[in-house]
Amino acid sequence: MKKKYEFKSVVAETLLIPLYMRAKESRRKDAILRDLQAEQLVESIEYDYSKFDGAKLSAIGCVVRGLYFDNTIRHFIATRKNPIIVNVGCGLDTRYQRIEEHDKAIFYEMDLPEVIELRKTLIPLETQWMDDLRKKHPEGEFVIVIEGVLMYFYEKQVRQLLTRLADRFSGGEVWFDVCGPMMANSKYIKPDSLRGHEAQIRSGLKDGHEVENWEPRLQLIDQALYQRFFPKRWGFGGRLIGLFPDICRKSSSLLGYKIK
After folding, report:
1. In angstroms, what is the C-alpha Rg of the chain?
2. Is-contact 83 106, C-beta < 8 A?
3. How many Å apart are CA 225 and CA 239, to the nearest integer?
4. 177: nearest Cα among 22, 58, 75
5. Which end of the chain has the least Cβ crowding within 10 Å, N or C?
6. Which pTM value belongs to this model?
7. How far is the C-alpha of 55 from the C-alpha of 58, rounded, in Å?
8. Among residues 192, 191, 197, which one has the least CA distance to residue 252?
9. CA 237, CA 239: separation in Å to the nearest integer?
10. C-alpha triplet 151, 152, 157: angle, nearest 5°
11. What gap in Å lies between CA 199 and CA 12, rounded to an integer?
């Protein structure tokens, strides 16, 4: 039986976008990402998902992002003795279920209180959860994934969060996606899945090395451009944009850092 949920926060409501995109992708014969649980979750939540059907770039972007971070975690688990996976802003993500090696690591999932309540309480920008995890796993090697979250916060808040992570998780890694300045500096340019939605893009950056200037303990591992993955699936417009890396970085990218 489907159940209807009322979201108090427009940001919290955006968790349904990647969930729906993964479910749609999973049903394709040539799926980039298989996510049977996402299919089940979409069927169980009463919502008008049709508003996202025209968001073709976000559809491929969400699953590319999901696979990219899945593979990042797989590599981290394979190369660490005591891997701890922290999924901040987890929404209704099913990464734990998608990663076959999940029994070789400890997973934590955190989000806004109303989202945590929905997925049966922690706000990502608070610090108590960081201290609790560090105390609970003194020998743990942490990778923190923050997917589809930071663009909704102001740059000052993002810097503060990254500094707090660097304070507590030296030797670990942090991975997240960002929108570029093209979206952050415009009221009219948004990801196609957010057109007509109240959620606002509040921060963005073009060059991943800029974060190293914010917080010197973070060392860039990778700045990946979405369009380099599965180019045939992006359509003509997406492939055309992919020929110009500088424009891609102004739009969005995927970032990973070692915490020194």
Report:
1. 18
2. yes
3. 12
4. 58
5. N
6. 0.89
7. 5
8. 191
9. 6
10. 85
11. 9
Place of tokens 């492939």: 239
**Residue whose entry in the numeric block shows the structure tokens 């209180």:** 113
Reading the block at residue 244, the tokens are: 């110009």
**Angle at Cα 258 formed by Cα 206 and Cα 216, nearest 5°?**
65
Q: Which residues pair with 4 in a beta bridge?
A: 46
pLDDT digits 0-9 by tens, 66-86: 999 999 999 999 999 999 999
Residues 179-204: tens digit of each pLDDT: 998 877 666 666 776 776 677 788 99
Q: How far is CA 75 from CA 18, 72, 80, 87, 104, in A?
A: 23, 5, 9, 16, 12
Q: Are strands 45-46 and 3-4 parallel, antiparallel or unpaired?
A: parallel
Detail the DSSP E strand segments found in the chain.
Answer: 3-4, 45-46, 83-88, 106-110, 141-146, 173-179, 218-224, 252-259
What tokens were used for 109?
A: 């999932």
Residue 199 carries which side chain, given as an amino acid letter?
A: A
Task: Please tell me the distance from the alpha carbon of residue 166 to that of residue 203, in angstroms, as a whole number.
Answer: 20
Beta partners for 145?
87, 175
Identity of residue 10: V
Q: How far is CA 39 from the centre of its chain?
A: 19
